[in-house]
Amino acid sequence: MKAVILISGGMDSLVTTAIAAEEGFELAAMHINYGQRTWQKELECFRLVCTHYGITRRLEIDAGYLSQVGGSSLTDPSMPVSGADLQGTDIPTSYVPFRNAGFLSMAVSWSEVIGAGKIFIGAVEEDSSGYPDCRQAFYDAFNRVVELGTKPDTDIRIETPLIAMQKSGIVLKGMELRAPFEYSWSCYKSEGMACGVCDSCARRLRAFELNGMPDPIDYEVRPKYI
Question: Of 5, 8, 104, 170, which is most buried by a Cβ count within 10 Å?
Fold first, then answer.
């Protein structure tokens, strides 16, 4: 069966790709540039991941309107990126308003054209930064939208294999599947070396520490988060 996989270049989408590949899907990969601070590094990682898994059908989309809309420290350089807050419950400044709905809509369109029956996305609810569009309820609802908004003979389902996992479990799963973590990027702030202090870097570093494994990418600093 064909499947479209949304690959941001981050750790979660990498492990999701490894899972989909392990399950034997014929993969088509989509990457979306939306004016985020680290778009060049993320695009580089997308291409490396696709090459690693032999994915030749690729679609790179420009969704720059999200940076025009603003409202996120990922797309607005005048807004500071939130530092590590691993116990916080507030939605951080890095939240891009309703971003995943737009991404999924594009993926559904492409899936309908190429005949893909699955869309994989590396959303994580329990150990995410509190983004509302990373909740299981959101994807349940969106699957219903797909049913109502596509041709009657279309059968597409969004799959979220990591949705209930912790980051440490995602790292462990990736190691089991020999996912190339060196080809992924999680930092919200920089493209040279990861900053080590933004919320995304902190969650990633803690996940590797909990597994007793070094993160293979380079950091400006490597604080201990456990």
Answer: 5
